[in-house]
Amino acid sequence: DREWITVGWALEGAALCWLFHRVPHPGLRLAGVALLVTVFTRLALNPAVLTYHSRAAFPFFNWYLYTYGVVTVCLFAAARLLAPPRNRVLGHNARPLLYTLGTVLAFLLVNIEIGDYFSIPGVAALTFEFSGSFARDMSYSIAWALFALLLLIIGMRKRTAPVRYASLGLLGVTVVKLFFHDLSQLDQLYRISAFVVVAVIAIVASFLYQRFLGTAEKTNEIKSTVTPAP
User: C or N: which end of the chain has fewer Cβ atoms within 10 Å?
Assistant: First the structure.
């Protein structure tokens, strides 16, 4: 039942951030953020959490999904609830922290679900391996590339530079993994297929980013040509 304690803390943390809207006491906001950070630490930095339960019989629809998924939603919900001017916790902006923790947890969930799907049948504990299986290795690479593409789209829509840089960094790591790890273990036909898939994602990301930069430049030019009213 330890995963339910974690989920309960996450729900309580988000509820305290919501309650802060009704009762604007700084202690409620601080307690809510502290609970959410504690829950993230428990899930992301505690390897023992993966042994709380045996693996489920069905892939994807398992306790990893609802535990990590609920906590991720709570982190994002709390970040939205703490919109300015409610975003200052102990003098610091809490929203970027909550969004970052939620994104990291979502990325961990994607990798955990892939690892669970490709774990040896009959083994109770979840195992992570990055060699010996073409399907598993490429699933990681494609999932990372798609996650990076999603981050890039969000970063462009929200005009948030750190999110865009994080997406490009993750995409770069994916390409390095593809060339120096995945392709070295594949036959010629599989190499071509793997390269095409990741290349398409990279091309789409490049196209979107170039389009975003062009739009941003046009916006800056328009602003610079507008004469301020006297």
Answer: C
